[in-house]
Amino acid sequence: MKSPLIVEPMFHIGPVPVTQPVVATWVIMAVMVLGALLLKRHLKQRPGKVQVVAELVTGALDDQIRDVVQSDPAPYRVLIGTIFLFVLIANWSGALPGVEPPTAHLETDAALALMVFVATLYHGVRSNGFIGYLKTFAQPTWVMIPLNLVEQITRTFSLIIRLFGNVMSGVFVIGIMLSLAGLLVPIPLMALDLLTGAVQAYIFAILGCVFIGAAVSEGREAGSPERSAP
Amino acid sequence: MTIEEISVLSAAIAVSFGALGPGLGEGRAVAAALDAIARQPESAGTISRTLFVGLAMIETMAIYCLVVALLVLFANPFVK
């Protein structure tokens, strides 16, 4: 059986080996960018069907982000929304024949989680200032500094492993079922895989949102008593 | 027993015990969420969102065990 941890290169561009997840990622990116451009070109005051759906999705995303961050969702909409849509499309792309979801490989998930990590730092520094954000690491007391530092690493790592493990196990189970009984038997599992993919995309986006919201609001809470103190 | 046989056995043990705890935990979480929704149907949205995030957190433990099992099977450092 093929190891899910190793990716064989499909073809080479010069000295650079190109693997299947890279191709799938670029195709998904192209589809998303082209779709967004098409949607942008046909924006109207009286929306058509496609625009209504797009506005519905954006509104739902905004509501979720507002619930978590407890403030205006505008600064986080682009990142969280793009991550959600990308992970969703990537997870569901496994339903197409011959395509393996790029999120079933560790590298894609690592890149996504790294983006969330950098965005957490960026929004923390942006809303609290550099010193103010550093102070949040000593939040209850200074004893918590090592724990808070470790937490930053482990939660990013668990974000990677969660998405990887869920999507990869779905692909793996379908592969095993296919080798046992080919016709029609894996269909319920594939349906379950679609559900898992949607839930995991939601979870990934919401957790990224929670991390960013915590980085933003912790500073607010840490800053207020100091300002009120004489 | 060779190192390969031990690896296969330990992968099975890791997944089986790793599925046990999260299974019990998820059952309790869903039961508590259903109870809460039955008491307060108007807050079903908030409860189910928190439930999904919590379930994903619990499920991560099982996924960790799965990843350890895969490491043991496919990327075992002791198998030459």
From TrEMBL, chain A:
From the Swiss-Prot or TrEMBL record, state where the protein is found.
Answer: Cell membrane; Membrane
Organism equals Novosphingobium beihaiensis
TM spans (from-to): 20-39, 76-96, 108-125, 163-187, 199-217
Protein family (similarity comment): Belongs to the ATPase A chain family.
Q: Does the keyword Cell membrane apply?
A: yes
User: By its UniProt entry, which InterPro entries does this protein fall under?
Assistant: ATP_syn_F0_a_bact/chloroplast, ATP_synth_F0_asu, F0_ATP_A_sf
- Principal place of residence: membrane
This protein's name: ATP synthase subunit a
The UniProt entry lists membrane topology as: Multi-pass membrane protein
Q: Which UniProt keywords apply?
A: ATP synthesis, Cell membrane, CF(0), Hydrogen ion transport, Ion transport, Membrane, Transmembrane, Transmembrane helix, Transport
Pfam families listed in its UniProt record: ATP-synt_A
Chain's role: Key component of the proton channel; it plays a direct role in the translocation of protons across the membrane.
Top-rank taxon, per record: Bacteria
UniProtKB/TrEMBL annotation, chain B:
Query: Where is this chain primarily localised?
Result: membrane
**The V-ATPase proteolipid subunit C-like domain, residue ranges:** 9-71
Q: Which residues cross the membrane?
A: 51-75
Protein name (database record): ATP synthase subunit c
**Keyword annotations of the record:** ATP synthesis, Cell membrane, CF(0), Hydrogen ion transport, Ion transport, Lipid-binding, Membrane, Transmembrane, Transmembrane helix, Transport
Which PROSITE patterns has this protein been placed in? ATPASE_C (PS00605)
Q: How does it sit in the membrane?
A: Multi-pass membrane protein
Functionally, this protein is described as follows: Key component of the F(0) channel; it plays a direct role in translocation across the membrane. A homomeric c-ring of between 10-14 subunits forms the central stalk rotor element with the F(1) delta and epsilon subunits. F(1)F(0) ATP synthase produces ATP from ADP in the presence of a proton or sodium gradient. F-type ATPases consist of two structural domains, F(1) containing the extramembraneous catalytic core and F(0) containing the membrane proton channel, linked together by a central stalk and a peripheral stalk. During catalysis, ATP synthesis in the catalytic domain of F(1) is coupled via a rotary mechanism of the central stalk subunits to proton translocation.
Query: Positions of the site: Reversibly protonated during proton transport?
Result: 59
Q: Where in the cell is it found?
A: Cell membrane; Membrane
Please state which protein family the record places this protein in.
Belongs to the ATPase C chain family.
Under Pfam families, the record lists: ATP-synt_C (PF00137)
